[in-house]
Specification:
single chain; Rossmann fold; GMP Synthetase, Chain A, domain 3; 2 domains; 5-stranded parallel β-sheet; 11 strands
Length: 333
């Protein structure tokens, strides 16, 4: 636990110079810790795992083995972006696993959100462990643990109960014993972003909005079906594109589409057209414990509605969620 406490004297990393100093120190520490051994990393493409990957690539190059598991619940273009950035641009040792069928088969018919989270979390570990077993002489596991995760585990140790079980990697099976490499575990999120930019990662990746571990799985509400998941992914891509174009992506903390397992009657080409509603959620928050609603200009909302209802098969209405947290949580599940 001693190594998990941020020393009071530790300076907040707010500038490139401070980030460069941190990076240089970490490179030395990582090299000293792992020597010539291999290090494994689950690379989701989120800010934390991306920064850890970039840091380790700088420190040990091809000794780092990144595994990107596509659980079929990623947003549109997300896995491709990971492959482009890490596999191609940074020339990392990257294993890409398309495990879509494994996840979606297990999730078929499961509507309880906590059960869905547990299935996704457990299967993630299974897929990752399968890949780890195929590799020889890996001794270390790198993780994108950050300081708020450590503070959260302190709270849990004190017996405080969470509203939702958040699943990240952890709890690998007994036969896979790795020593941990956690280079950003004493950093707060804003510091991770400064370090990410200093490492040369693209701004869009470093300032990416938070995305839950179970991905679109908790936004395709109730029992997930492939057609509704596809519609959700397409509608979400349109929302993100329009937020980017209209300068909202920088302003809004988290924005996404949720699609419930409900249909309504609509009309298209003079024919009855049943479809699901796409629900827009756009919130601002500091710590995700409470959240307020971002007011989106009606003109933009009309345009998004128009695009989603015309371009996405299966969606015939667009709704706007105006509920703050509390009483609504940010995600619908
Ligand atoms: P809620 O819905 O609890 O969300 O208000 C607060 C923040 O946490 C994210 N979230 C998750 N993150 N695994 C994650 O890694 C999860 O299971 C999960 N559920 C919610 C949510 O996107 C928001 O940023």
């Amino acid at each position: 636990m001693v190594n998990n406490k941020r020393p009071d004297s530790m300076e907040r990393i707010t500038t490139k110079a401070l980030a460069d100093k941190f990076i240089a120190e970490q490179i030395n520490e990582i090299k000293a810790q792992v020597g010539d051994k291999k290090v494994l990393l689950a690379l989701s493409g989120g800010v934390d795992s991306s920064v850890v990957a970039a840091l380790l690539i700088k420190a040990i190059g091809k000794q780092l083995v990144c595994v990107h598991v596509n659980h079929g619940l990623m947003r549109k273009g997300e896995s491709e972006a990971v492959i482009d950035m890490f596999g191609k641009e940074l020339d990392a040792n990257l294993i890409y696993v398309d495990a879509t069928d494994r996840f979606l088969d297990l999730l078929a018919g499961v509507s309880d959100p906590e059960k869905k989270r547990k299935i996704i979390g457990a299967e993630f570990i299974n897929v990752f462990a399968d890949e780890a077993r195929k590799l020889d002489d890996v001794s270390y596991l790198a993780q994108g643990t950050i300081y708020p995760d450590i503070l959260e585990s302190f709270k849990q140790a004190e017996g405080k109960k969470a509203v939702k079980s958040h699943h990240n990697v952890g709890g690998l099976p007994e036969d896979l014993k790795f020593e941990l490499v956690e280079p950003i575990k004493l950093l707060f999120k804003d510091e991770v972003r400064v370090v990410g930019e200093a490492l040369g990662l693209p701004h869009a990746m470093v300032y990416r909005q938070p995305f839950p571990g179970p991905g679109l799985g908790v936004r395709c509400l109730g029992a997930i079906t492939r057609d509704r998941l596809h519609a959700l992914r397409e509608a979400d891509a349109i929302l993100r594109e329009e937020f980017d174009k209209n300068g909202l992506a920088e302003k809004v903390w988290q924005y996404f589409i949720a699609v419930p397992d409900v249909t309504s009657v609509g009309v298209r080409d003079n024919k009855r057209y049943e479809g699901w509603p796409a629900i827009i959620r756009a919130v601002n928050t500091v710590d995700a414990m409470t959240a307020t609603i971002e007011e989106i200009p009606y003109e933009i909302l009309h345009h998004i509605t128009d695009r989603i209802t015309h371009e996405v098969e299966g969606i015939n209405r667009v709704l706007l969620d105006l509920t703050p947290k509390p009483i609504g949580t940010i995600e619908w599940e």
